[in-house]
Structures are given as structure tokens and as C-alpha cells.
Amino acid sequence: MSKPQDSLYDLRMFLTTDYPCSYLPAKLARNLVADPSVTDNRLYTQLAELGFRRSGDHVYRPHCRGCVACRSLRIPVDQFRPNRSQRRIWNRNQDLRVQVLDAELKDEHFDLFARYLGARHAGGGMHPTNPENYWSFITSRWSPTRLCEFRHDHELLAVAVMDRLENGLSAVYTFFDPLQKARGLGTFAILWQIAEAQRLELKWVYLGYWIAQCSKMAYKARFEPHEIFVAERWGWASGL
Questions:
Q1: Which residue blocks in 93-184 are alpha helix, DSSP H?
Q2: pLDDT tens for residues 162-194?
Q3: Is the pLDDT confidence value at 93 over 90?
Q4: pTM of the predicted model as reported, rounded to 2 decimal places
Q5: CA distance 69 to 130
Q6: What would the DSSP string read from start to end of 112-127?
Q7: Which candidate, 163, 44, 54, places its Cα nearest to that of 102?
Q8: How far is CA 55 from each of CA 31, 76, 135, 140, 186, rounded to the nearest angstrom?
Q9: How is the chain split into domains, by residue range?
């Protein structure tokens, strides 16, 4: 029997060339990238279950030479229990209004994104940016992407870029007002997405890649319990 057209079995994969790792000094990185010409939400969900992640039109997984530091991390939303710090952040931000929008390029969103990069990731791979680069990074031609606005009164404080998978939500990227440090907006955006997945009766929130040696990614492991993808399977972090 022939395999289904555009299934994982006949989906072409490509390897990128080596490039400097953004997270571990003196390391080179490369990615395994799914053929974007046949990617759809069904395949996207299946690839997420295999530890892949979306950036723009591309769904990729690290495939570095001699390094397996990047671990895909996801939260089983029915089992999630916020810690004391997360509960404080949740309560602190109950004055925010959240609106979920279809993906649309807005000057207000881009301006916030540019300010966030300038304050938090100056000199990084995406900084400086422009509207075209911003838009090609957060959206794709085929993904059901939503932009979740977090506002205090009429002031835009944060935007969470969120993909709806068949069995979960993928927290693609969050950017926020760098002057609002006390609110913990990055953490609150993840907590809100966990609550939204629970409301939609979905199983997972995917947080992308976590590296134990990278302090910038430490926040992801604070959402417990969580699973990480190691040796082609998901498992509890304590059991791998």
C-alpha cells in the first residue's frame, strides 16, 4: 500500500549549513528543516510531536554536530501547577485585557517588537529589524497563527505570537514593553496560554527549545511539570 501523500513518511527534509550558535559560545549550529512547500497544520502538529519548532514558513529541529543541548519542552496543561512566583505574576496582571486577533501586520505591534529587541536582544540575530523581517519571522503562509494582545487600558504592553495545533498551542514568541519589568509579562503570557489551552480542551503548550546551560532559557523549566524530548521520545525531565 502506498503511503499517504504529504505524510511524514514522504516529507522531504533539508540540512542547513553550519552557523554560529546563538546560545552557546564557540559552538556551531545547524538545523533539520521540513520542506515548507508541503507543510500544513496536520503535519505541523505531527512535527511538533517530534520536537520541531516553527520560525516563519520553516519548521525545524536542531541537528548539530556533536551537540544535543537543545531540548524541546512542552507543558501538559491539565497537570500544570503554578509556583508561588507564577501565582503572584498571574494576580499582578489581572488588570490587563487580552484580545486574540488573526495575524495582521500592525505598526503598533512592530514598534513594540523593535523596542523589545533593542532592550533585550541588542546585537542579536534579529536586531536591528524592519517590518518585513518581523512579519516573515512571526507568521507563515499556512500556519493558523494568532496574535494575543495584552493591554492596560488602551496601552499595548505585550504581544504573544501563538499557533493553534491540533492538540495544543505553540508559544512561538512573546515581546513586551521593556519598561514593565515588574509585571513579569513574559511569564504571564505563558500562564495565559496555558489557561487558554485548558479552556480549549487541548493537551499541550509547546515552549520551544530549552538549553540547561543557557540562563536566558531558564524560565521555561520553571513551568512544572513539563516534558522534554530526548532520544526521539517525550518524558518527564526527572525521568530522562
A1: 107-120, 131-138
A2: 999 999 999 999 999 999 999 999 999 999 999
A3: yes
A4: 0.92
A5: 31
A6: HHHHHHHHHSTTSTT-
A7: 163
A8: 12, 23, 11, 8, 19
A9: 8-69
